Amino acid sequence: MTEKVLAGKTAIVTGSGRNIGRAVAVELARRGCNVVVNGSSNRENCEATAAAVSAEGVEALVCMGDVSKSATVSAIAEEALGRFGTVDIVINNAAIRPHKPFVEMSDEDWHGVMDVGLTSAFYTCRAFIPGMVERGWGRVVNMTGMKAIRGYNEGAPISAAKNGLWGLTKALSTEFAGRGITVNAVSPGQTKVEGRDGTDPKQLAAIPVGFMAEPEDIAAVVCFLASPEGRFVTGQMIGANGGAAT
After folding, report:
1. 136, 140, 157, 186: least surrounded by Cβ within 10 Å?
2. What is the C-alpha separation between 44 and 23, in angstroms, rounded?
3. β-strand 181-188 against 237-240: which pairing, if any?
4. Is residue 201 scored above 80 in pLDDT?
5. What does pTM read for this prediction?
6. How far, in Å, CA of 13 to CA of 113, rounded?
């Protein structure tokens, strides 16, 4: 049985209706943490995540909304704090990854990716870090990915958003290191998610360990950083990528 090292804590996981976000929410719950589940549109998926969280004996709250919008994050924060009193852990997982030739990108294409992948983290951190400062304890984990370091064809705003999220991680880790708050990033490699079952030989050939991660493999790294045991790790980007080069 997993030790309840996060009993009494509350986390918000953005983009937690499925895949890695869901796995993180459930693993936090196994460790005793209440979880605010968030998604932009698919309530059914988020309710399924909340049910899995509740099955671990903790409380779940579904807060739907597009976290790229300041007013939406403010409303989510009000609801979450009204329910739980504190939010101690912020997992910034929400992202969109459309691919399009750079010269064909509209303003909307660019800002859509940047606002979900980067600006949303500014909003959530601004909403919840003040409470962490008051209590002298907090954890922020930002989900970056290999695009934070490498450029990919037809993915300019994705790489820009993820690299910016890495920069935000470094800045906040420095600013709040002396106040009991750690801020880190996790960079997942190839992971089995919807539409990717882990059997593509070309994809597997790029992973030295020879297999794709399960979402739970990524969640384990995230939850270590969110735990009390992770107190001496801050300002880092952990590559959970099976040995793939960054």
Report:
1. 136
2. 16
3. parallel
4. yes
5. 0.96
6. 18
Rounded distance, CA 40 to CA 132, Å? 25
DSSP string for residues in the chain: ----TTTT-EEEETT-SSHHHHHHHHHHHHTT-EEEEEESS-HHHHHHHHHHHHTTTS-EEEEES-TTSHHHHHHHHHHHHHHHS---EEEE---------GGG--HHHHHHHHIIIIIHHHHHHHHHHHHHHHHT-EEEEEE--GGGTS--TT-HHHHHHHHHHHHHHHHHHHHHGGGTEEEEEEEE-SB-BTTB-S--HHHHHT-TTSSPBPHHHHHHHHHHHHSGGGTT--S-EEEESTT---
pLDDT for res 196? 79
pLDDT in tens, 120-148: 999 999 999 999 999 999 999 999 988 88
Query: Residue 60 and residue 34: Cα distance in Å, rounded?
Result: 6
**Would you state the pLDDT for residue 86?**
98
Query: What is the Cα–Cα distance from 187 to 203, expressed in whole angstroms?
Result: 17
- How far is residue 22 CA from its own chain's centroid? 10
User: What's the CA angle centered on 124, arms 142 and 117, to 5 degrees?
Assistant: 50
The pair of structure tokens assigned to 64 is 């739907």
The pLDDT value recorded for residue 1 is: 64
